[in-house]
Amino acid sequence: MTTAPPPPWTASDSADLYGLPLWGTPFFRVSDQGEVEVNLGEMENPNWNSMACILEELEARGIDAPLMLRFGNILEHRIKLLNESFRKAIADVGYQGAFKGVFPIKVNQQQQVIEQICQYGKPYHHGLEAGSKPELIAALSYMQDPEALIICNGYKDQEFIDLALYAIQMGMQVMLVVETVGEVPLILERATAIGVKPRLGVRMKLSTPGSGKWIQSGGDNSVFGLNAEQVIHVVDLLKKADALQCLELLHYHLGSQIPNIRTIRSGVSEASRVYVNLVQEGAPMGYLDMGGGLAVDYDGSQSNTTSSRNYAVEEYCADVVESVMDICSKSGVKHPTLITESGRATVAHYGVLVFNILDVSGISSRLDLPTLPANVPTELKYLADIPKHLKAVNLQESLNDALYYRDELRSRFSLGLISLRERALTEQCFAAILRQIEKATKTLDRIPDSLEELSTSRPEIYYGNFSLFQSLPDTWAIDQLFPIMPIHRLLEKPEHEGIFADITCDCDGKIDHFIADTGSKKSLPLHDFNKDEAYYIGVFLVGAYQETLGDLHNLFGDTNVVSVELDDEGKRAYGHEVEGDTVADVLSYVEYDPKEMTMNFRSLAERAVRSGLITAPQRKTIMQAYREGMQGYTYFEQA
Ligand SMILES: *Cc1c(COP(=O)(O)O)cnc(C)c1O
């Protein structure tokens, strides 16, 4: 009986394998040509563009991987989605207040990002949240819309307070959110000195615990915000100073990436109660600021797990609006203007990191054993004989034997009884036997657990041209999962299981957890790597937090950044190009002086000329190499 050949591997097999339709729709898809495409058009009217083509066009311009691609239309869509969803939820139930979102600068404070947010947010008067003095300084220069809010959180010194008050004086909608009781007297004093009525908020620590990886940022244990007693203290202070009329806003933040809609609902209910009470205390109020927390479905599972969320943006908006309305209406309190400080959900989708693979190592994929010379140790002969007896019924036994002989030979090496050459042959034989067993297990109806682990327990290492610490710090710091997949070759079935190592020489510089139906998995299906052909890997949904938290581990700097958009004629346009750091840039960040360094190196070279080690023309070549190195990209550059 002959078995029919398996059906050919298709683009949609690849899409399903990497879960793209679940986390990538409507922004990304796999084309029939087997490439990941990004939608640069409107969501209702898509315009699909191959990411591999984009990479090719950029490389032709001298802009190499690793690079961060930003897709402005995706950002525009996300801002629109949040605002329109709130508008719809408000209209659906007849809520009497409005929605005014702000973007928290800390989530991605790159200048182009803030500029684009101000641009795309304009129709909705979408504002900014500043958690520090530098962020307020940035906000005041980019936010020119007098109807948009600027919310000031964080600890505030006199300079911070003065700037906010001057902005109020100039007609900007700036709110100073009180984080500690101690800030109140200073704010009131500065307001009197400047001669402006301050606009105040209070940040309350709710008892609703956050959930997910960021659980500590909300709830009783949060280091931020005031507890009930302190809120009342602030109210009393304001009353005493005859300034309760300045209190307009209640703010809370439960933490980032809240996966469960129930947490969101209980937070907003608790906050609405506080809001009602503040009105009853006599404060004018008017604004309820629910902070961030709107989560991103990184793994596409739509579930209540840390990499996902069990609600859609529309549902979030509807639930929030209904909860506030319910509690305020029952107490006869006017519905407040709703504010959210959604960062992650606004910018995550629009950034994609693309890196190229430099090399692959790990176990060889060869099935045949090396030919053994005469006089090899008996154990090695036994090891090499295992394949002769390999059958479907004795796979487990063969694996046990192979492990036994390999370990035996390894200990003989430690005792000085076999040579390094013989040990190398041992390892070669062992790897080939494992491959043969692995191949044979695929023919079994039921695979024993110990054999099933064979293929995934020894993934190959794909060396990627990137620094985890610079570009994906949350992968390292909090084991965050991002969707990762090759952006081309998707008509080929990926036959290897791999993990990624970056080019820092840190053993933590690796990605070895990947999204999966079952939560996470330890390796990713990848293609055969051929050095003559570029192999690009995309890390998706990285627009939030990753760029900002990155550090200079091993002195790898910022990557190149490019915005990709369609121009008025519908042609691809590359803009907002930011060249990644040069070696000189990163060295000067850590206080080196590139000029002085070149001078020092020059004297080393001159000494070598004088002592006859190199010639003068050689010195010239060497100095040129040093200077070019100094001006080059910190990442691996193709010669
Ligand atoms: C970090 C932070 C946010 C952003 O949270 P996301 O979950 O990214 O939306 C909003 N508000 C405050 C006060 C924050 O500290």
Describe how the helices and strands are arranged.
Blueprint: H1 11-17, H2 20-24, E1 28-30, E2 36-39, E3 48-50, H3 51-60, E4 67-71, H4 72-93, E5 102-104, H5 111-121, E6 127-130, H6 133-142, E7 149-152, H7 158-169, E8 173-178, H8 183-194, E9 200-203, H9 228-240, E10 247-251, H10 261-280, E11 287-289, H11 313-330, E12 337-339, H12 344-347, E13 351-361, H13 378-385, H14 395-414, H15 420-441, H16 449-457, E14 460-464, H17 468-471, H18 473-477, E15 484-486, E16 496-501, E17 510-511, E18 514-516, E19 519-521, E20 524-526, E21 536-539, H19 546-549, E22 560-566, E23 572-578, H20 583-589, H21 594-610, H22 616-631
Parallel strand pairs: 4-22, 5-6, 6-7, 7-8, 8-9, 9-10, 10-11, 11-12, 14-16
Antiparallel strand pairs: 1-2, 2-3, 4-13, 13-14, 13-21, 15-21, 16-17, 16-20, 18-19, 22-23
Bound molecules: pyridoxal-5'-phosphate.
Structure keywords:
eight-stranded parallel β-sheet, ten-stranded mixed β-sheet, alpha/beta, binds pyridoxal-5'-phosphate, TIM Barrel, Methane Monooxygenase Hydroxylase, Chain G, domain 1, single chain, 639 residues
